């Protein structure tokens, strides 16, 4: 299906750590003769942020375009006060239908946001930190886990944003004592939002999930993560319940006690998300400590 698997160690005790490689994006639905493209979403998008977004079409050659909508100069007062709907938006590359077809851009071509990676000290701004930040954390674990008497399975999954599909396959391929989804989660710590409504805080350390829309975390596993973090002086926070879902929601159906360790990220499911490398460090430390102690 496209998952990537790595195994470190050959012990009887085992843990599966999963991060998803895919990102939210789009797919070409129709190409008009003048070259404008109708598109459909892949994963969850907030329609309000789409107009004027630069996108990249993955044909035979990469082609860049802009999500276009009616200019404000010719919109009515009624239109200005109504939310923009996905079916009112198009992608404009400036090329016509024949030119696009010569580049193998047609119905079914995948599309991603186009964004520039920026680093401000420990702060990273980029697209797809959900869940490339988690994939990076797994790579760090692989680099720093010199040896272990346990079996550690590192899995980079696919199609999480379309329904946890890669995790379903991973759960059937790997039988482990515990499973952890290593994710990027919502950090809504901007001004104007009450503290009790903020799922997590960027800079607050690794995020542990007690419950989300796909999972009630295994209590033994959650307690062990808290205990290890306290013992090792690792910064953690508990995610406010009921927001989002992760690969752990599918891993649990294989009968594996499952949980989630996340990196708090602002503006996920957009072209410009943000995270703090301090939080990534805390996640890596927690995963390594958990592997050592479970």
From TrEMBL:
<dbReference type="GO" id="GO:0046872">
    <property type="term" value="F:metal ion binding"/>
</dbReference>
<dbReference type="InterPro" id="IPR023367">
    <property type="entry name" value="Peptidase_M42_dom2"/>
</dbReference>
<keyword id="KW-0031">Aminopeptidase</keyword>
<dbReference type="InterPro" id="IPR051464">
    <property type="entry name" value="Peptidase_M42_aminopept"/>
</dbReference>
<comment type="similarity">
    <text>Belongs to the peptidase M42 family.</text>
</comment>
<dbReference type="GO" id="GO:0006508">
    <property type="term" value="P:proteolysis"/>
</dbReference>
<dbReference type="InterPro" id="IPR008007">
    <property type="entry name" value="Peptidase_M42"/>
</dbReference>
<protein>
    <recommendedName>
        <fullName>Peptidase M42</fullName>
    </recommendedName>
</protein>
<keyword id="KW-0645">Protease</keyword>
<keyword id="KW-0479">Metal-binding</keyword>
<dbReference type="Pfam" id="PF05343">
    <property type="entry name" value="Peptidase_M42"/>
</dbReference>
<keyword id="KW-0378">Hydrolase</keyword>
<dbReference type="GO" id="GO:0004177">
    <property type="term" value="F:aminopeptidase activity"/>
</dbReference>
